[in-house]
Amino acid sequence: MRLLHTTTLDLHEFQGAPPPYAILSHTWGEEEVLFQDIGTPTSETKKGYGKIVKFCAQAKGASLDYAWVDTCCIDKRSSAELSEAINSMFRWYSKAHVCYAFLEDVDLRHNSGMRGSRWFTRGWTLQELLAPLHVVFFDQNWMEIGSKVGLLDELNAITGVPQSALACPATIHQYCVAERMFWAHQRETTRVEDIAYCLLGIFDVNMPLLYGEGKKAFRRLQLQIVSESGDHSIFAWNSPERRIVQRANPCDMLAESPACFTLRSIVQGPHKNNTRFQSMPKPEDVTITVSNVGLSMRLAIATLPHPPIRISKLKSVSKSLIAVLNCRREDRHIGIHVLHSTAYAGAWSRCQGREIVFLGDAMVRNLQSDLVIMTLGEPKASLLPYHRAVLQPMLDRDRLVHFADFTIAMSSSTSESICDNHTSLPPMVVVATHGSALMFTKTQKTAFILVFGMDHGRIWCAGFSCAVPSSLLEFAQSIWIKYHVGRETLPWRYYQDRQTHESDELNHLHVTIKPELVPTEHAGLISQYYRVDIC
Fold first, then answer.
1. Which CATH number applies to 382-534?
2. CA triplet 488, 493, 496: central angle to 5 degrees?
3. pLDDT tens across 60-113, in order?
């Protein structure tokens, strides 16, 4: 750990326990003094130099010989040193003799209050508020605003952090995951990855830094928390977009960012008494195991009535499947909407666009928990709301269908096509979920069927000479189930965008498929199209 000497402003390195030191909390501005600037004439010409001088003067006035500033005490040119520092930062702030929080946009001379300060919106300053026992706030002129203990009510109103957590840093890790995520839900960082890295100490986890991974950093953080804590409240989040999703599609079990943890209550207090999210009595097998398939965990699945939700053009359901989490909000259990996974047999997926639900004791009293697999990751490309196929036919079509969502086909009787699959159809545009099927017949008994679509963004196409099926839709769906969802080895030869098929019904059928991205009628939305040329 490197520390600045408060008199000479020289850097000193300590391998063991450091001497007492003050630590600075601030927001970065223009021309900060960096590690490589210390001891050079360049440092004194930078705008951030005055901040360091006055900070060290405050520390020296408190009889402290050393001080720490993140701008110049870390050599950020070394990725290894930066990673070690970020993983140690919560501990460094907690071990400091005092933390000075410098609010450069607050001016006491003009009655400028703390509430509007940028300091309260930044991700990194959350741990700098929570970790130290003693925090003293200063305005832009280094006039003292007050201490953390003396400003508990105001800090609670601004940050949403309970007074008990502010006053006693040792209790922070007793609050459940959802509660701590809520403290960060309105905070921002300059780099996407830092919204995860700035929370490492708050959740008492360590992980390597991988700048460039983007939003994956927050996923890694959640997986690390899950594997170490088993706290179900990490799944008690809502999508911040509040979109109305008309179809029951799968989504990720994990949240995209802390912004998803928006639930709060006026009830506050220590963990296990009356926190906003109280952990329910933990069963012996509360462990959550992370694998390449998903999360293996014990959940009770409840079936509840609700207003009908459309799951296809013709089908809707009037019941919800709710996975009851092992956590509470005040006196009610928390549940999330789930559906059967389309990726793995016997697994479950979280349901996209559905808010979490609150259940009374009577609704869950007779439920039994089972070991289940909850899938992770984004929905597969094939499960997007729709694809659109633009056909340029050179031959007469006898029948044309497109299939509905595979989830529906698995959970209910096979639905009929939006288009009547027993009628000759001439439309140029077909809306499809997984793909389309085109049948050519030469006699009443034999046919050539072309099945095509997109899977994970890849084009697939298959041709079959066979007897005329009783239902072209069911035939097409069976191909999808067999080759694209079933457990059989994927036939990679079908993932081709240029194919030639021969059959008794046709001499040669040349198929060319080209993916396109076309704006929809909804502003800002882009749909995935594929253009099929047949000759």
1. 2.60.270
2. 125
3. 999 999 999 999 999 999 999 999 999 999 999 999 999 999 999 999 988 778
Other beta carbons less than 10 A from residue 87's beta carbon:
17
Query: Which pLDDT does position 468 carry in this prediction?
Result: 84
Q: In the prediction, which pLDDT does 521 show?
A: 47
Q: How confident is the model at residue 434 (pLDDT cuts 50, 70, 90)?
A: low
Query: Tell me, what DSSP letter sits at residue 485?
Result: I
Q: What CA–CA distance (Å, rounded) separates 202 from 152?
A: 19
CB atoms within 10 A of CB 255: 22
Residue-wise DSSP of 345-401: TT-EEEETT---EEE-HHHHTT---EEEEEE-SSPPGGGSS-EEEEEE-SS--SEEE
Q: How far apart are CA 284 and CA 276, in angstroms?
A: 23
β-pair partners for 92: none
Helices and strands counted in the chain (H then E) = 12, 25
Q: Which residues contact 159 (CB under 8 A, 6 or more apart)?
A: 120, 126, 129, 166, 183
Residues of the chain with CATH 2.60.270: 382-534
Whether the CB-CB separation of 200 and 91 falls below 8 Å is answered with no
Residue for token digits 């009783």? 470
Q: Which amino acid is at 330?
A: E
Distance CA 44, CA 28 (A): 17
pLDDT in tens, 56-72: 999 999 999 999 999 99
Chain centre distance of CA 460: 30
DSSP bridge partners of 339: 349
Judge whether residue 18 has pLDDT over 80: yes
Residue 71 is classified by DSSP as: T
Q: Is 500 exposed, middle or buried (0-12, 13-18, 19+ CB in 10 A)?
A: exposed
Asked if 66 and 6 touch (Cβ cutoff 8 Å), the reply is yes
Q: Tell me, what amino acid is at 73? A: C
**Residue 9: CA count within 13 A, CB half-sphere:** 20
Q: How many CA atoms lie within 13 A of 394 on its CB side?
A: 10
CA angle (4 as vertex; 108, 189 as ends), nearest 5: 60
CA distance to 92, 127, 132, 315, per residue, from 100 (Å) = 14, 13, 10, 61
461 vs 459: CA distance, rounded Å:
7
Token pair 């290894």 is found at 80
Q: Which residues touch 78 (CB under 8 Å, ≥6 apart)? A: none
